Automatic annotation (TrEMBL):
Transferase as UniProt keyword: yes
Any matching Pfam family: Pkinase
Organism: Urocitellus parryii (Arctic ground squirrel)
Keywords from the UniProt entry: ATP-binding, Kinase, Nucleotide-binding, Serine/threonine-protein kinase, Transferase
Taxonomy of the source species: Eukaryota, Metazoa, Chordata, Craniata, Vertebrata
Binding site for ATP: K64
Domain Protein kinase stretches: 31-172
Protein name: non-specific serine/threonine protein kinase
One Gene Ontology term from the biological process aspect of the record: intracellular signal transduction
GO CC term, one of those recorded: nucleus
Amino acid sequence: MLRAKPWFEESPTPVELAELAACEGEYSHKYSTLSPIGSGAFGFVWTAVDKAQNKEVVVKFIKKEKILEDCWVEDPKLGKVSLEIAILSRVEHANIIKVLDVFENQGFFQLVMEKHGSGLDLFAFIDCHPSLDEPLASYIFRQVRGSRAVWAGWTTGKSVLQSSGRHTGSDC
């Protein structure tokens, strides 16, 4: 498995966000970007608010140039996007956060998702709670089951895309 270094060690500041032009385009007409949550190899995540509904959401800004060449697919509804976006925009499962919108500008995809909880990752949570009671452990395993749904969607989506000649890579 390929591992990329984080693009940003921390999410960009509001000034850096503006300089990157990450929020430009259709996204900025519908959402106001609020505060950083985290970052990774392909981009960064911020909270935002839907201007019409005044509802808080989470936005993953994915830098297009960071997407591996073999991880681009042609989605019938979204056009040319990363495999991650193609799959997550289709997966519907009670334990998977729902994708609400997908936008793009010249440099970024803006993947808008519903906000759920504090966003603490599982490893950090277990470190904070080394003794899990049964209801909490059951809840965590429901999340794992949701991950299996994503995996099933990925493998199905990948085989469909491969059979149609739209995806040939194996590193995604």
